[in-house]
Design goal:
Strand content: 15-25%
Distance between the termini: 12 Å
CATH class: Alpha Beta
Number of helices: 13
Order of helices and strands: EEEHEHHEHEEHHHHEEHEHEHEHHEE
Number of strands: 14
Number of domains: 1
CATH superfamily: Ribonuclease Z/Hydroxyacylglutathione hydrolase-like
Strand order of the largest sheet: 6-7-8-9-10-11-12-13
């Protein structure tokens, strides 16, 4: 099998830390780092980066999807490390990129990346949103998407955020940064595991949509290479992400946009994983990034929607085996709804998935 896209979902506790590679010849693969998980993820990420081949440690793009402690915590030490010097471009929407905030300036005259993340000065000058001419990473208005050319790399399409979501972040920027700097949030209470004997009713449960301004500003991407497709949902709103995917499908003359893998948004939260979103981009593989130790993700409602709406034979990939996720590997459940469940062979590496090239 010739691999088109390789994705590692590192064990970043309740957060996201992903490493994506796309082979290219000659030379090392095109490489993208997406988020750094909470602060405790950095030693693991550093160890993983240390295994990159000497002379081939370039990271073409490092994405900080949004201001939230479980996504930026590990990125702070990364930015201070030698590995940041090997990054071709950082994609992140800082204060200077937000519409109608009264502080919109060119990046060279505005904040440095470290200052934008921490709310305080410091750190070296780093390439920032160069692929967007120093402007924001966004899709325009609802139903939009933005294609980003790469040199000898994959085809990348920005699916989220919209300008409206960035405007909302602008109004709440200071408080959002304060929350991110505080770090650990309060736990949601005891994790009570309900039986999975009525998956259909679970999937039909009415749920409130994600209200988080930070999550709504998430950078979500479609990565395509050698015929394979991967959706990186970050913590994006299901409505925005679904509308973006539908727009891409429509632009290509399709009713839906089938993909090989879909990293479910917001750690498979029921407020983000919506039926319309799953129908917009049916996948062969669904990736879940969380150990559930704070907010008890993944939600059963979200996974019920996935297993009922996924193509027959689809696979769930978890980067942690927990009491909550292990229930979804029940043999009778898998047989009834015709899916498979997978867990890391090595808990220290998380989930690793290689997508084959297609003609």
């Amino acid at each position: 099998m010739t691999t088109a896209i390789r994705i590692e979902v590192l064990p970043a506790r309740q957060g996201d830390c992903l490493l994506v590679e796309c082979p290219r010849e000659p030379g090392p693969p095109w490489r993208m780092l997406v988020d750094g998980g909470p602060p405790a993820t950095w030693p693991l990420l550093e160890q993983r980066l240390s295994r990159l081949p000497s002379g081939g440690r370039d990271i073409d793009v490092a994405v900080v999807t949004h201001i939230d402690s479980d996504h930026i915590g590990g990125m702070i030490p990364f930015l201070r490390s030698e590995y940041a010097e090997h990054v071709g471009d950082f994609w992140f929407n800082g204060r200077t990129h937000l519409p109608r905030t009264g502080v919109r300036r060119g990046v060279a005259q505005g904040e440095r990346l470290m200052a934008a993340l921490l709310g305080e000065p410091g750190g070296p000058e780093l390439p920032w949103n160069r692929a967007f001419a120093g402007g924001p990473v966004e899709t325009g208005y609802d139903g939009g998407f933005t294609e980003v050319p790469t040199r000898d790399g994959p085809r990348i399409t920005v699916l989220s955020p919209t300008l409206i979501r960035l405007q909302s972040l602008g109004h709440a920027w200071s408080e959002t940064v304060r929350k991110a700097r505080r770090g650990r949030a309060e736990e949601a209470g005891p994790d009570i595991l309900e039986p999975l004997d009525d998956v259909v009713s679970l999937s039909e449960e009415k749920t409130s949509k994600d209200p988080s301004v930070a999550n709504g500003s998430s950078i979500a991407l479609l990565v395509e290479h050698r015929g394979a497709g991967l959706v990186l949902g970050a913590d994006a709103f299901g409505t925005v992400l679904g509308t973006g995917l539908q727009a891409v499908a429509g632009a290509r003359g399709l009713d839906t946009l089938p993909v090989d893998a879909f990293k479910l948004p917001h750690h498979a939260s029921k407020g983000n994983v919506l039926g319309a979103l799953l129908r917009a981009a049916p996948a062969r593989h669904y990736l879940v990034s969380t150990n559930g130790d704070l907010y008890h993700h993944p939600d059963d409602v979200a996974l019920a929607r996935v297993v009922l709406g996924a193509p027959s034979g689809a696979a769930l990939w978890f980067n942690y085996r927990t009491d909550r996720t292990a229930r979804w590997a029940d043999a009778q459940l898998c047989e009834k709804y015709r899916y498979t469940a997978h867990f890391p062979e090595d808990p220290g590496t998380g989930a690793v998935l290689e997508l084959p090239a297609r003609s």
